Amino acid sequence: MTIPSLPLLMVEPVVCAALLEDLGRAGDLTTDAIVPPSERARTALVARQPGIVAGLDAAATAFRLVDPAIEVSVQRPDGTRLAPGDLIATIAGPARGMLTAERVALNFLGHLSGVASAAATLVEAVRGHKARICCTRKTMPGLRALQKYAVRVGGGMNHRFGLDDGVLIKDNHVAVAGGIRRAILAARRGVGHLVKIEVEVDTLDQLEEALATGVDAVLLDNMTPDQLAVAVRMIDGRAIAEASGRITPLIAPAIAASGVDLISAGWLTHSASVLDIGLDWQA
Question: Where would one find the signal peptide in this protein (predicted)?
Fold first, then answer.
């Protein structure tokens, strides 16, 4: 499935901030001293390890913002499965701008490809079950839209984008409200009719109380596969069943086999390993 690219309006400010951070107060001292302004070059973005590529728009934007004369030609677009040595894209144009933008471009490309690859690994782990893999709000500051895009590129789906697009009642909300039922009723009074309500539960007793009150979804936190199977039977289609907590590719198949609808993992965005991608100079 082709994932629509993010609007440039969302990508450019993030990339611009990264470039400004790197350029500091005096620009690229090394490149400006060594590389003549007239020097032109041709380079290639090449995969060093297997994975899923994501973030090419961000990388291309980095080169373009430094020097609009730089041209990026993509051979393997976002969502393509990579093998070591695969040519992802070629870059041609002024050498100065290419070298100045190199690190920022690779930072975005490597990180977002790592997120997409991690999502793809979990998606593959639950193949054959109905459970969908989704990310959370555990994103790096300023990168949420890009990281959640990368999860979709890897075959996953997104949870809330922020605090304002859905109600998720967690343990501390329950503690303040004085119980699950009170928290759910207060949320229902406080939001519009189009806003869905999800509640986090740690035990089957809490789940029973949430279902009796009525919710759109339940987040089954840190339950074993056996407990999840019981929870799914209790829910019986009355709410979306989401499993979370210490999700790994090894345990994901057993969790998916319980019959849950969603499996959410925060590490997809906050701890995914960078995919090794290099910028190779071509003669």
Answer: none
Q: Is 67 a catalytic residue?
A: no
The pLDDT of residue 113 is 98
Residue 130 is among the residues annotated as catalytic for this protein: no
Residue among 57, 221, 242, 261 flagged as catalytic:
221
| Helix ranges, 154-275 (H) | 171-177, 180-190, 204-213, 225-235, 252-257, 267-270
Catalytic pick among 103, 137, 160, 182: 103
170, 233, 238, 246: the catalytic one is 170
Domains in the chain, CATH or no CATH each: 8-123+272-282 (3.90.1170.20), 125-270 (3.20.20.70)
Res. 1: pLDDT tops 70: no
Confirm whether 138 is a catalytic residue.
yes
Burial 198-210 (b: 16+ CB within 10 A, else e): bbbbbeeebbebb
Active-site position among 137, 138, 160, 188 = 138
Nearest to 1 by CA among 83, 89, 80: 80
Q: Is 170 labeled as catalytic in the residue annotation? A: yes
Structure tokens that stand for 216 in this block: 């759109």
How does pLDDT run across 220-269, given as a tens digit for each residue? 999 999 999 999 999 999 999 999 999 999 999 999 999 999 999 999 99
Adjacent-strand bridge partners of 217: 198, 240
Q: Is 221 a catalytic residue?
A: yes
- Answer for the pair 200, 171: CB distance below 8 angstroms, yes or no: yes
C-alpha 261/C-alpha 278 separation (Å) is 38
Whether residue 157 contacts residue 265, with contact meaning beta carbons closer than 8 Å, is answered with no
